[in-house]
TrEMBL record:
Keywords: Membrane, Transmembrane, Transmembrane helix. This is YpfN family protein. The lineage of its organism: Bacteria, Bacillati, Bacillota, Bacilli, Bacillales. The chain crosses the membrane at residues 24-43. It comes from the Bacteria.
Length: 73
């Protein structure tokens, strides 16, 4: 087997590997986008929100502007 045959064989293997990996990457991207859409939709449901977002538990009472002006003085 000469060098050109080995190069052709490596190029064929690279092409096959590239095809398989590109299919997996496309599938993973589609799954991630679907998961993002589902989780964003689930965040609009109030009873589910505390389980999905730890930040939601940190929400407190809104601050009134009048009180903020008092802090500056």
């Amino acid at each position: 087997m000469d060098e050109q045959d080995r190069v052709r064989q490596y190029l064929r293997l690279f092409g096959e590997c590239f095809d398989v990996l590109s299919k997996w990457v496309k599938r993973a991207l589609i799954v991630l986008v679907i998961m993002l859409i589902l989780i964003q939709g689930a965040l609009h449901i109030k009873p589910v929100r505390p389980y999905l977002s730890p930040v939601y538990k940190l929400d407190g009472i809104p601050v009134k502007e009048r009180d903020v002006r008092d802090w500056k003085e």
